[in-house]
Amino acid sequence: MCTGKCAKFIGIFLFPLGILTIIANLLLYFPNGKIIEPEQLTDFVWYFHGIVGAGLLVFLPAFMMVGAGGEGCCANRCGMFLTVILSALGTAGAGYCVVISAMGLVQGPLCDTGNGEYIYPFRNDTNEDNYLFDQDRWSICKEPEKVVVWNIILFSILLGISAIEVVLCLIQVINGIIGVICGTCLRKRKINVSGS
Hints:
Elements: H1 3-27, H2 49-68, H3 77-107, E1 111-112, E2 118-119, H4 147-182
Antiparallel strand pairs: 1-2
């Protein structure tokens, strides 16, 4: 079993996930594909959880994992130790995205309910009366159009992808610790067979 190859596989897999979280976070700035005033955006958009947390902070360990899985100076115990440190940072960043995305889902979007004033109409919902499970209530938001669906889809994507990133980074922490202790690869021993 090669801990280096496992690290490289995880690192390569993290890149598209990080790109997807950045795109999903950026789309939250344009509800229903429209440009609106910054003060009309939900406050959870401004935490940059998909851009920084599940994006940039996950790219750091991903780069190191790919390096640790290849040939050369990074493919050693020191490289694997660095993947442990950076994967812990990636876990924290992706975990941050999980928390903010969950809060964004539960609290609901900022919207105009028809009187020209932007409010959070779903902020005081109880667990039994949550807007997520009552689609009839979504029509209370008039502007931006379909902002409730927009936020639910994008925050759900961010929540799901960042949860996967947390799991992958934690796997790499364990894999990296094994790589530090045992080395990056258990090499096959060559058996010298000589004919008599």
